[in-house]
Amino acid sequence: MTRATFPAPMLARALGVGGLACLAVITLASPGATRMYAWPWSLAYTGTLLAPALALLARAFDGRQPLLLPDRSWTATAAATAGLVVASALVSPFRGPAVLWSAPLLGGLAAFFVVVDWLGGGEGRRDRLLRAALAVAASVAVASIGLWALQLLRTDNWAESRNPFPLGHSNYTAGLALLMLPLGVATAFRERGIWRRLAWFTSLLALVMLFTSGSRGGLIGLAALAGAALWQAPLDRKRKGQLAGVAAVVALGFALAHPRTRTTLLGGAGAPVLAASEVQRSAMLRAGWRMGCDRPLLGWGPGTTPLVYPKYRGGLAGGAENVLQLHCLPVHLWAELGLAGIAGLLAFAGLAWRDASREPIAAITLVGYAAFALTDWQLDVPVFALALATFAALLAAPETCHVLRYIDESPRRRFARRLLGGGALAGLAVITLVGQPDPTPELNVRALALGRDPAQVARAIALFHDSLHLNPDQEIAHFNLGWLLVVRDPPAAEKHFRAAARLVPDKGGVYFGLGLARLNQGRPEDAARAFALECLNDPRFLSSPWWREPAIAATRDASAAALAALLRQLPASIPPPSFRPDQLGRVPAGPERVYRRERTGYPVLMRDLDLPTPVDLYEVRESTAPSALAAAAILPPKGWLPSPLLLTLLDAPVSPKP
Questions:
Q1: CB 270 within 8 A of CB 278
Q2: DSSP designation for 636
């Protein structure tokens, strides 16, 4: 008696439908790119990445209707890239998290093979896939513009309101628009009836998404799309030149219409904000280059940038305390995957160029997105990894490969199919057995919660030590451990404050804590130098109510002299502001503001939105009197000094004499 079996192609299709449903959930549930890190949305995120891997397994071991593979060069490139991603994760200093965060890249590579196989299953599947993609694009566009319109009802400055929907950041909005626009325009010329109307509607919304994102990288991508489309167009040179001129004028108008991109070209009131953004991006590029140079073969491991970036932060002239990504796809690959990542990128680019004629829509889309990707990294968000995999599959899958269904499979193809299936099974096993979240964020959050209870301080100290044993480059742990030890063990506190300063030199309160640790060791002159550096870094400390404390007030004159000496040590490129010793430590009468700083971005950086928002143990005290603000204004706002200079001043001896 025979037993009914569930055919592998049907199982693969069921997994595909389920995976697409999960993808829709985490993409449209704004803000999707961060919400997928929170329960229960993380279930949909897992389902999105697991579905293509399981579908590939089901098809790879199906002997009745064998898995169809692209040609040897595409197959070898995709399989080798997957192997190198896993290898990079396994040799990473942060192996557990790196293995876990290899899943988005591996899921995209698995989807590439699954889509190639599906495209070869019958005539007309390319058109069906493009129509389905258009329907998905229309849904995303409606969600984006609809949510943005609702946001406009709650803002006074609608012209400068950037569109972050539905993924949670305007750069994601621009990336989605660039993936959607060529599909919409090309389909509008190829289809008829309702599909043509839907295509024009989607194209219009994609342009609106791109405009409302205010993304300068999006404009670069749009220019690349236009150039690639003209290159592919069957027109003579004269006609192409005319269209190029029209496109340039339209693009300029497009750029000047949005306040943010107009400020980039012409300057204006928003220029300082854009300048700060450029400083941060420049710092990320330098950090990424140094990260890759330190581990050039396989990098630090996929997804490890938030864990590694702080190691390099102190040597950067500006930038954020920590970052989730490096805002440049090649640099990000170099930092996390090393030469292996760059080799894979170049191999895929070469194959896409070679086979561009198979599907011009896919080729044009990849060109535009590649230009945009020079300004952002988005492959950790499933919708981008899977979309790019789909466009690559359209280039890799020959039009007639479906006829192979009815031809006996060659031994070489059988071996390749089984080898690919074995690799997919091994990858799933590695992620399941080795992959694990970074344990340090949970340790830090628990320690911060316990540290507020005097009876639990010893336990909090132990947790911070455990966290730093796993990763010594954590400013949050060094800084707060210093505050727990500043009275109990001042020499140890001094070491942790110095470590925190080396990781984030412009951290508010770190030099004050260092001064207190020195003061508690009976070193008032050294304490005064640290207090002066705190004033230099954060001018609000000049009139902080902390100066009312007798032990701190006793160092006022020495601190003022040290601050004057520090100002004299500034390089010639930084004009020293005017300062009088009597301007330091004079706290005006009146109320004060007391608070502890929250680290609102920490759960996102650690990819765990179920974590409570950490709150530092340092108690900030600021006078609210107008005269206190005037006193702080004698120095530029916090962040005016480059981080390497702050560290130089920290290490250099300071003479209190003029």
A1: no
A2: P
Nearest CA among 136, 236, 244 for reference residue 187: 136
If one counts every other C-beta atom within 10 angstroms of the C-beta of residue 452, the result is 12
The two three-digit tokens of residue 525, written as one number = 């002159």
Give the closest residue to 168 by CA, choosing from 604, 610, 606, 608.
604
For residue 341, count other CB atoms closer than 10 A to its CB: 25
Burial of 282 (0-12, 13-18, 19+ CB in 10 A): middle
Radius of gyration of the chain (CA): 28
Q: Kindly give the residue spans of alpha helices, DSSP state H, lying in 67-192.
A: 72-90, 95-100, 103-119, 125-152, 170-190
Closest by Cα among 332, 328, 306 to 603: 306
The residue assigned the tokens 């849904």 is 139
Q: What is the pLDDT of residues 54-109, one digit of tens each?
A: 999 999 998 788 889 999 999 999 999 999 999 999 999 999 999 999 999 999 99
pLDDT tens column, 118-166: 998 878 899 999 999 999 999 999 999 999 999 888 876 665 578 999 9
Beta strand spans in 391-442 (E):
none
Amino acid at 300: W
Which DSSP letter does residue 573 get? T
**Beta-bridge partner residues of 620:** 595
Residue for token pair 């280039």: 395
Residue 2 confidence (pLDDT) above 60: no
In contact, 338 and 289? CB cutoff 8 Å: no
Report the alpha-carbon distance of residue 633 to residue 116 in Å, rounded.
62
Q: What are the helix (H) ranges across 490-615?
A: 490-503, 510-519, 524-537, 550-553, 556-568, 602-605
* pLDDT one-digit tens code per residue, 205-241: 999 999 999 999 999 999 999 999 888 878 778 787 8
Which whole-number Å values give the CA distances from 353 to 364, 446, 542, 554, in the listed order? 10, 51, 60, 71
Phi, psi of 206 (to 5 degrees): -65, -40
Higher pLDDT, 346 or 640: 346
Query: Shortest CA distance to 503 belongs to which of 311, 325, 317, 643?
Result: 311
Give the rounded percent of residues in the chain with a pLDDT score beyond 90: 71
Q: Dihedral of CA 574/580/585/587: which sign?
A: negative
Q: Residue 3's pLDDT is what?
A: 46
Q: Taking residues 169-190, what's their average pLDDT? A: 95
Contacts for 380 with CB less than 8 Å, ≥ 6 apart? 101, 104, 303, 325
Q: Residues 354-373: pLDDT tens digits?
A: 999 999 999 999 999 999 99
Give the C-alpha separation, 351 to 365, whole Å. 15
Residue 408 pLDDT:
60
CB atoms near residue 437 (< 10 Å): 14
Dist. CA 427–CA 102, nearest whole Å: 10
